[in-house]
Amino acid sequence: MPKFTPFDLQMMTRAIKLAQKGRFTTAPNPNVGCVITQGESIVGEGFHYRAGEPHAEVHALRMAGESSRGATAYVTLEPCSHYGRTPPCAEGLINAGVSKVICAMQDPNPQVSGRGIQMLRDAGIEVEVGLLKSDAKALNPAFIKRMQTGMPFVQLKMAASIDGQTALANGKSQWITSKQARQNVQNYRAQAGAILSTSQTVIDDNASLTVRWNELPESVKEHYPEAELRQPARVILDRQSKLHPQLALYASHSPVLRVSNENAEVTVEVNQSGQLDLRQTFATLAKTHNINHIWVEAGATLAKSLLEEQLVDELVLYLAPKIMGSDGRGLFGAFGLTDMQQVLELDIKDCRLVGSDVRLVAVPMPIESKRKD
Amino acid sequence: MPKFTPFDLQMMTRAIKLAQKGRFTTAPNPNVGCVITQGESIVGEGFHYRAGEPHAEVHALRMAGESSRGATAYVTLEPCSHYGRTPPCAEGLINAGVSKVICAMQDPNPQVSGRGIQMLRDAGIEVEVGLLKSDAKALNPAFIKRMQTGMPFVQLKMAASIDGQTALANGKSQWITSKQARQNVQNYRAQAGAILSTSQTVIDDNASLTVRWNELPESVKEHYPEAELRQPARVILDRQSKLHPQLALYASHSPVLRVSNENAEVTVEVNQSGQLDLRQTFATLAKTHNINHIWVEAGATLAKSLLEEQLVDELVLYLAPKIMGSDGRGLFGAFGLTDMQQVLELDIKDCRLVGSDVRLVAVPMPIESKRKD
C-alpha cells in the first residue's frame, strides 16, 4: 500500500472536483480530472468536458507547459493507452517529462485496465494507484458498470403521494410533485446518456423528454451555458408502432431511438408475454449506442417489469406531501403477493427534502440474496 | 424588548436541556427547567421530574440554599402562582430572596398567564420574559395546546412500504418496518399521555400498547431506570364492546380507558354514521383525564376519519424499503377523489432514516386554508 501525503490527498480531491464539472457533457466518456504540481505548487489542471474534445491530462499539460518536466500528475482515472479520437494520455505525460503519476483508480475496462500504467512505468515514471479510489468510482458509476458488465446503469424515476398513488382513479395527476422536484428531475435527465419511456406515456403526456435548460438549478446554469447543452437520446419502447411525427417528442432535434421487434433503431426480441425484451434493449443500447446511463420515466407497468427483471440500479422516488387515498393508481401495480418473504426489498441510500417533497434514492436488493436470508 | 447577555442565553439553554430530562415522566405536567446563578456562577439547578413531585424551581432553590439571596433565576416557564400539590413557585422564589427572574415564556393557561410574573414583580423582583421562547415552547407542544384550546395534541403513527401498503391483500404484515423503527415507536409512546387505538386493532394484534422499557434507546435507558417507568393510559375505541379480559391489553397494570356511547370510562355520542364522536372523545380525554398528548396507533379507517375531521397535529409515517404492490392494503383506504384540488396536503417537518426505514413527520394543512389557495 503506497503512502500518500496530506498534500497528495488535497490534490486528488481537487482533481475529483474538477472531474465533476464534466458531469453533464462527457457522456459516453467518463468524468476525469487532472492536477499537475511542482513541489507544492499547482502548475496545471483540467478536466474532460465533452466526448471528442481533449482529455483532462491534455488540458492540464497544456496549462503546465514546460513546468511539467519533473512534475507530479494527479489523475482521477488511469491515463488511456490507446489511439482514439485523441492520442493516448499516457504518451502525453511521458513526452511532457512528468516524473510521477498518482491515479485514483485503474481503467474499469478489463481489456485495457493497467495498460496505461504499464506504459508510464516502462518509460521510467513512478506510478501509484488507489488514492481516493471510492470517490473516483463515484464519479462514473454508469461508465464503470458498462465497461465491466456490458450493461448500462439504470435509474428508475417515479413520483407519488406519501400513500403511494401516482394519480387519482380517473387518471388526474397534475401536479403531484412540487416545481423543485420537477427541476431536480431535469438535473438527473441532464446527466443521463438516454431518457427511456414508452410510447403510451409519451402519447398520454405528449412528453418531449428533453432537458429544459431553464429548469436546471441556478448553480448549474452558471457554469453550463445553454449553447453547450447536451441532450440525451430519447429511447421509446414502441412495440405497437404508436409513435407519430406530430408528437412533441419529434419537435426537438435530439435523437429518438425507437425500440421494437422490427423496423426500429433498436430491434429486440419479444418475450413469451408479448413484451419487448428489456434486458436485450439495455444491452443493445450499451453495446451499439455506447449508452452508459439510462434515466427511465414511465408508468407502473414498465416499472414493475424492470424491477422484476432486476434491471434497476437505483429507484429515485419523489413522494409529495399529499394523501390521495388507496383508490387511486398505485406506484407499481398489483403484485399478487401472499407472503412477506416475497416482498421486494431495497436499500435506501439517501432521503431528503427537495422543495416540499421527499426524495428517496433506493437500491433494489438482488432477489437471489434475499431468498438466502 | 429586554436585552439578554450571552451569559443569559447560555443559562437558559442549560435550563431547557434540564427540562428535557423530564420528557418521559412529567405528564400531565409540563417540562420545566431552572438554573440559579450568583454573578457568573451556577449555585442551583433542577427540573420537574414527575407530577406530584417538586417543581423545577424548588429543586434549584434547595440546591442553592442561602446562595439564592440576590441571585438570578432562569426558568423555562413562568413560575406558578397557585397552591396545588405544591406551594406556588413564585412564592418560593420570593421567600428565597432571589432578585431577578428570567422566564422563557409565560404560562400558556390563559386563566393564570402573567399572574406568577405579577406576584414576583409585586415583591420587587426584576422579571424579564421571552428569552429562547420558541425553544421553550418546543418543550411542551401538547401541554400548551391543551391549555390554549382544551384539546390534546394528537400524533398519528402509521407504517407502510414505500408504495403505501400496510399489509398484503391477505392481511400479512409482520414485519414491514425494522426493529429500529419499532424501537423509535416505543420512544414516542413513552412520551405520550395516552396511546389510542381501536378494539379491532387491539384484538387483531393482541396488542398490549404498553411502553417496553427494554426497547427504549440505550441513551434513554441510561437516565431512565425501569423502576421509574411511567406507562401512558391506553384509550380504546370500543363501540361494539369487543374488549374482553383475556386480551394482552389487560395483562399489564396501566389504566385502560374504554370509549363507547354507554357504560364506558369515556362516554361520547355516536355520530350520524354510527361512529363514536372523535372530537368529543379527545375533548373529554383532555378535560376529564388531563391528557395533553395522544399517540394513535390504528388502522386505515380510524386514520382516515381523524384526518378528515382535522384532528391530527402530526402524522408520523414510517416507510419501509419494500415494494408490496398496489393490491395490498392501502394506508388510508379509499377517498373517492375526482380532482387534485381535493387532495389532502401536508407539510413535511422532518425526514430521516431510522434503521433501514424512512421516518416522515408531517403536519396536515388546514382544509379551509387549502381551499382558499
UniProtKB/TrEMBL annotation, chains A, B:
Pfam families xrefs: dCMP_cyt_deam_1, RibD_C
Organism, scientific name: Vibrio diazotrophicus
PANTHER family in the cross-refs: 2,5-DIAMINO-6-RIBOSYLAMINO-4(3H)-PYRIMIDINONE 5'-PHOSPHATE REDUCTASE, DIHYDROFOLATE REDUCTASE FAMILY PROTEIN (AFU_ORTHOLOGUE AFUA_8G06820)
Reactions the enzyme catalyzes: 2,5-diamino-6-hydroxy-4-(5-phosphoribosylamino)-pyrimidine + H2O + H(+) = 5-amino-6-(5-phospho-D-ribosylamino)uracil + NH4(+); 5-amino-6-(5-phospho-D-ribitylamino)uracil + NADP(+) = 5-amino-6-(5-phospho-D-ribosylamino)uracil + NADPH + H(+)
Pathway: Cofactor biosynthesis; riboflavin biosynthesis; 5-amino-6-(D-ribitylamino)uracil from GTP: step 2/4; Cofactor biosynthesis; riboflavin biosynthesis; 5-amino-6-(D-ribitylamino)uracil from GTP: step 3/4
Domain of life the protein comes from: Bacteria
PROSITE patterns, per the entry: CYT_DCMP_DEAMINASES_1, CYT_DCMP_DEAMINASES_2
Identification of the protein by name: Riboflavin biosynthesis protein RibD
SUPFAM superfamilies (UniProt xref): Cytidine deaminase-like, Dihydrofolate reductase-like
Gene name tied to this protein: ribD
